Amino acid sequence: MDLRVRLASLNDVREIVEVHCSDVEKWFRWVSGRRIEAEYEELSIEERFMHGGPWMSVETCAIHLNNILTWGQYPLVAEVEGRVVGELELYVGDERGDLGRTAFIDVLVVHKEYRRRGIGTALVRAAKRVAIEEGCCTVSVWPEEKVVPFYRKCDLGEVAYKVVHTVVDAGAACMEMRLHGEYTIEELPQAYNELRDLWFITPRIYSAFTAWLKSKWRLAIGSPKVREGGWIPEVEAAFILESLWWPLESEARLTLWVRRKSDAPRVLAQLCRRAGERGFRKLHLLIESELVERCSALKPFMEVKGREVVLMGRLKETSSCA
Fold first, then answer.
1. Residue 146 contacts by C-beta under 8 Å, 6 or more apart in sequence?
2. CB pairs under 8 A, 24+ apart, for 53-56?
3. Statement to judge: residues 130 and 188 lie in one domain
4. Are residues 24 and 147 in the same domain?
5. Does residue 212 sit within a domain?
6. Would you say the pTM of this structure is higher than 0.85?
7. What is the number of alpha carbons within 13 Å of residue 17 lying toward its C-beta?
8. Measured at the alpha carbon of residue 93, what is the angle toward residues 88 and 95, in degrees to the nearest 5?
9. Are residues 189 and 289 in the same domain?
10. 85 within domain boundaries
11. Can you say how many angstroms the Cα of residue 123 is from the centroid of all Cα atoms in its chain?
């Protein structure tokens, strides 16, 4: 098998879409609130997006790929006999904590007709080579449970973070939670350099740099998303509150960095109340399991939705990390 891994270009968009769409068994559209099976060609760009994100259409995938490339990140494609059959998206950045300077694997998909041929392994090896060239200390990934054994075989077996997905009843928290004092909200820092020495709290399933970078990207589809970002000088914390996609517009997710980990529980409580004041019913947090135990003010309003792990492999080839 003639297999080659290289950096993707915009010329690869159509084939990248084919790779991602190969995972979709049936396509659906919404008619009068009902989900109806349909052909791909019948779907709007928004309806395609709902099946798996920007990779579901040439139009949105081109924007997404352009964002990755223009920010100097690494979309890698695997070719077999000139055909793109797999894609991996790698984000390189620094953060405080165990990951350090890390290369985060955000996406890895192989066309369903080409699986179990070593293509995914080849993409991970290529990602490791990029990580070494970039001076990274670790390669990290948030895997689906079923592919954890694959990443362990690729020497990404060390658990960096155990993460709990919790949903907070923001409406009830806003009405019932009694908190002392109010925070000042200033403008959110625009440069990642202003955040990288802070602790990244949520969503802890990503690297800190990946979460920051992707928060800056927009797609002009569907209803405009509600978004608020700010800097809290009293505790040196940065946050982004952002509504979810339809049909969950009344729910939000929180991205948060703090200077001191000890401040995280009360900052989370204040921002959950703020989410309720902004009209959100639910707030999604993806935080370390030990932090859940310390969020006593939020506990009555929390519901655990799932548990995740972030895996990593240390790069011995990078001497500065030894």
1. none
2. 54/219, 55/16, 55/17, 55/19, 55/20, 55/21, 55/107, 55/109, 56/17, 56/20, 56/21, 56/24
3. no
4. yes
5. yes
6. yes
7. 20
8. 130
9. yes
10. yes
11. 19
Cβ count within 10 A of residue 14: 12
Closest by CA to 10, choosing from 77, 82, 85, is 77
Residue 321 lies in a domain: no
Given this model, what pLDDT does residue 223 score? 61
Render pLDDT for 84-102 as a digit per residue (tens, 0 to 9).
999 999 999 999 999 999 9
Domain count of the fold of the chain: 2
* 3-state secondary structure string across 142-207: CCCHHHHHHHHHCCCCEEEEEEEEEEEEHHHHHHHCCCCCCCCCECCCCCHHHCCCCEEEECCCCC
pLDDT for 226 equals: 79
- Across the strands, what pairs with 240? 229, 255
At 200, list the tokens.
Answer: 């990244």
Mean pLDDT over each residue of the chain, to the nearest integer: 94
**In a shared domain, residues 125 and 185:** no
Rounded Cα distance between 305 and 189, Å, is 31
Which range of residues forms the domain containing residue 278?
162-310
Sign of CA dihedral 263, 269, 273, 276: positive
CA distance 38 to 196: 45
Secondary structure class of 308 (helix, strand, coil):
strand
Q: Does residue 253 share a domain with residue 137?
A: no
Domain assignment of residue 121, yes or no: yes
140 and 224 both lie in a single domain? no
Domain CATH for 51: 3.40.630.30
Domain limit, last residue, from 126, 156, 186: 156
Rounded Cα distance between 195 and 259, Å, is 9
pLDDT interval class at 317 (50, 70, 90)? low
State both tokens at 124: 């991970």
Higher pLDDT, 223 or 174: 174
**Residues counted in the chain:** 322
